[in-house]
Design goal:
The protein is of the alpha+beta class. Helices cover 24% and strands 34% of the residues. It contains 10 helices and 26 strands. The strands form 4 sheets. Strands 14, 15, 16, 17, 18, 19, 20 and 21 form an 8-stranded antiparallel sheet that branches. A 6-stranded mixed sheet has the order 1-6-2-3-10-11. Strands 5-4-23-22-26-13 form a 6-stranded mixed sheet. The mean pLDDT is 93.
Length: 389
């Protein structure tokens, strides 16, 4: 398998956008017998019709999502459409697109997965996921449901976002159509050997105090060490405002250790309930060990660089697929593209094709222990993740 990449910034010139993508890809000569396209774009490409025109012009299926900013070889920016093509003779691809998802219901996921799986002649080696940003269904539900449905196929991907504060234009893309409430995925089988890498915050940026989660409901953290979470945080030095809520809680990553040998996951805290519970971007299970970290621009760039270097030193790769959380983008302050530019500078020197996009949550398997090949599918926040193919 090999990878080809292309990009365009021609949002409002549909013909020019198609011409630039085709000129860079040269699909008439550069493709092997089976190919699939992975796309990320600024949301205005959907509205202008350029995204659809690009997909319609290509001789293979294309799946992807909208993003806040993306990167490919030779390109970094916000108002871009970036396309990566995976092509090979000894690999097979099967695309799935669920029915609309009104709630956390496994039935439409199972139906579409089984249909996509039936189009392959062997068990998938990898699932690439493009997830809608929904109020009524979260990343942990999708990760856990597809793990059960697939029997543990590694699942890597991201949640769609856009440039609006409420992400109202975010959508999943499948063959030129845009969807706000459907989950799209690609199953890969054959000669595919993915490796996974992730980075969030360094150990030096995690406070020494540890607590045990003693009450939680899904993504709502209720008590730590048997005291209300707001009281626990106040005991660590966090301040309560006049309304009784912790001030600036969404600026601090919560580090959640499942105590199962896998690396801790990071949870962004988005809000607090009237009862004072902390509402996270993913599940926080009872019995997990909780610690609080801090993140700034230098930490974002440093952990991205460390993760890329780990992937580069792990062995030869044909392509890197990369997602980073929009929370990391916002922590970059006055230079929000600093992480993306670091990725581009580092990887352009290697000649390895890559595709980087910001997401509203990252799906990436975690290895059960260092050196192990066993993985557990996980949903992450504030994390930089790589799938090396």
């Amino acid at each position: 398998m090999k990878a080809l990449t292309a990009h365009t910034d021609k949002i409002d010139d549909v013909e020019a956008a198609v011409s630039e993508i085709l000129e860079q890809l040269k699909p008439e000569s550069g493709l092997l017998s089976r190919s699939i396209g992975i796309l990320s774009c600024y949301a205005d490409f959907v509205e202008s019709g350029a995204m659809r025109a690009v997909c319609d012009a290509l001789p293979f299926e294309v799946v992807g999502l909208t993003t806040l900013a993306n990167v490919g070889p030779g390109s970094t920016g916000t108002m871009l459409l970036t396309l990566t093509v995976l092509t090979g003779d000894d690999v097979s691809f099967s695309v799935g697109l669920t029915a609309p998802l009104p709630s956390e219901d496994e039935a439409p996921l199972r139906e579409e997965y089984e249909a996509a799986r039936a189009r392959l002649d062997r068990r998938p080696s990898l699932m690439l996921s493009f997830v809608p940003l929904l109020v009524n269904a979260g990343g942990d539900f999708f990760v856990n449901a597809f793990t059960k449905i697939s029997g543990g196929v590694p699942n890597f991907g991201g949640l769609a976002v856009d440039h609006n504060s409420d992400y109202h234009d975010s959508c999943v893309v499948c063959n030129g159509e845009a969807y706000t409430d459907r989950y799209a995925f690609i199953l890969l089988s054959g000669n595919v050997s993915p490796r996974f890498f992730m980075g969030s915050i360094s150990a030096a940026k995690i406070f020494r105090e540890r607590g045990i989660v003693t009450a939680a409901n899904g993504n709502q953290l209720q008590t730590v060490n048997d005291v209300p979470v707001s009281d626990y945080l106040e005991s660590l030095g966090f301040a309560k405002g006049a309304d009784g809520f912790i001030v600036g809680l969404n600026s601090f990553p919560f580090v959640v250790d499942y105590n199962d040998g896998t690396p801790p996951v990071i949870r962004a805290i988005y809000s607090q309930t009237p009862e004072g519970h902390a509402v996270g971007g993913g599940n926080i299970p009872v019995g997990a060990t909780l610690s609080i970290g801090s993140m700034n621009a230098s930490e974002v760039v440093a952990t991205a660089a460390e993760t890329i270097n780990a992937a580069l030193s792990s062995g030869k790769s044909e392509c890197f697929l990369i997602f980073s959380c929009v929370g990391r983008y916002f922590h970059l302050g006055y230079n929000p593209l600093e992480e993306a530019e670091k990725v581009q500078r580092t990887l352009d020197e290697t000649g390895i094709p890559y595709h980087f996009a910001y997401s509203g949550g990252e799906l990436c398997p975690a290895y059960v222990r260092e050196g192990s090949e066993s993985i557990v599918n996980r949903n992450h926040n504030l994390t930089f993740v790589i799938c090396a193919l």
